[in-house]
Amino acid sequence: MTKTLLLVDDDKELCELLADYLQGEGFECASVNSGIQALEHLLDHRYDAIVLDIMMPQMSGLELLPKLRKLYATPVIMLTGRGDDIDRIVGLEMGADDYLGKPCNPRELAARLRAVMRRTQAVAALNDNDPAPLLELQGLVLNAAKLEVSFRGQVLLLTSAEIAVLKQLMQAAGHVISKELLTREALNREYTDYDRSIDVHISRIRQKLTAAGGDSDWIRSVRGVGYQFLVDVSA
């Protein structure tokens, strides 16, 4: 089934180049050239993923993203300047699923898009090879089939990346998982030096869990190693 994609970038030439390549990779692409246009367009259209540039006039990608997140759970990949680590972290904190530096390699963008889309395909969680489509620990329930997380009946609004990270931690509850493994298994890419993606995703999970009445200490940081979901925080 063809996957639909919206490109949001004020660089019209880049949008055309990316669309030409991605259509050859099996994506059905549309594009708009401002944040304001994107908001108006998305009132009547739905996509499997959105590629969003940070630097745009009138409304930047960082201004647009929280507005999108109030309305849609659609996976978002942000395009950032190569050295803009702060923008990348802020983008993740605001709800982006992943990021890619500009000028971006279209082949890598296609790979990142497939990765975030795989995380949103609930049918994959129903596969017989999935060890735990439904996970429950200390009142926290992760339903992989519905891509939904709840705590004591209250649904937590997690992105697909956050759900994927939490799923890995809950499946291995009581054991420490390295950032390298979390990046590979949850984000479907290799970990690189100074990559803060996992740290930011876990920070957001903790914030949302705490806001729902849970305990952020359930996810413990093991310095220099990775993270662990604690089975019994009183121990």
Please explain how this structure is put together.
The structure is a single chain. The protein has 235 residues and is α/β, with parallel strands linked by helices. The chain has nine helices and twelve strands. Residues 122-128 have low confidence and may be disordered.
Strand count, sense and barrel status of the largest sheet are: 5 strands, parallel
| Beta-strand residue fraction | 15-25%
Shape estimate? globular
What is the string of helix and strand elements? EHEHEHEHEHHEEEEHEHHEE
Q: Given the structure, what is the number of helices?
A: 9
Kindly state the number of beta strands: 12
Oligomer: single chain
C-alpha Rg (nearest Å): 18 Å
Task: Indicate the percent of residues in helices.
Answer: 25-40%
What class, by secondary structure content?
Answer: alpha/beta
Instruction: State the separation between the terminal residues, measured CA to CA.
Output: 48 Å
Strand order of the largest sheet: 2-1-3-4-5
Short description:
With 235 residues, the chain is α/β, with parallel strands linked by helices.
